[in-house]
Amino acid sequence: MPIEWALPYLVLAAAIAGLLTGSFLNVCIYRIPRDLSVVAPRSFCPECGKQIAWFDNIPVFSYIALRGRCRSCRQPVGLRYPLVELMTAALFALIVYRYAFTAVAGKWLLFEAFLVVLFWTDLEEQILPDELTLGGSIAGLIIACFVPIPGMLTTALFPGWKPVWRSLFSIGLGFALLVLPVWLLGVIYQKLRKREGLGFGDVKLLLLMCTFLGFENSIFATMLGAVAGSVLGIAYCLLTRRKLAETHLPFGSFLCAGAALMPIIYRLTA
Q: Packing angle between helix 3-31 and helix 80-99, nearest 10 degrees?
């Protein structure tokens, strides 16, 4: 079957896989910041602790059927649960639409899954867990040895290098010219202002981005996140009449959003 005929079915399969994956990512979002196992026990209601039956754990549909409440205690279930499932389904479908069923698509699906969890943990708990930032960075480094990181700069500078060496160089460049400078700026800000301006978790998130996106694309993703964070942050402060300097903004969430859009906006394949 030609790929143009197969693609709609692959996209639909990716969306369904995204819904199911999103259900698991919800577990990660709740449990990882609380140092709970994401494997056992089975899903349970955070309010009453009762385990959730399989028919009440169908992505999106169970939420609608139960009208956003736990069947046992009738306490409201956060809107975040269906949002994560729908977000993951949309991202997975867009990735497969862009890259079909390839190793490159597999890399970006994993990247998007990491970013969805990090987006919500930073938004809700103001934490970017090391299990995802550092663990994801290790995964990205390994994947870069098999799925090359695209980059015009490294290709232009080292046309004779093997793709794996260009990928590793791009990651190293990102560490030297993006991760370390941002970390130093955070340290200097904290020394001068006597308060944290940029969490070390954000720095480790940048490292994760570099191992998947490489130097050039990480710069673009950071710019997207910074612009979005600035605009939304200023708007929020104007609406709530708060001082921008005294308001904590989930910068990690904005970085995740910028990074998640990169493989979708641009066709990132070497």
A: 150
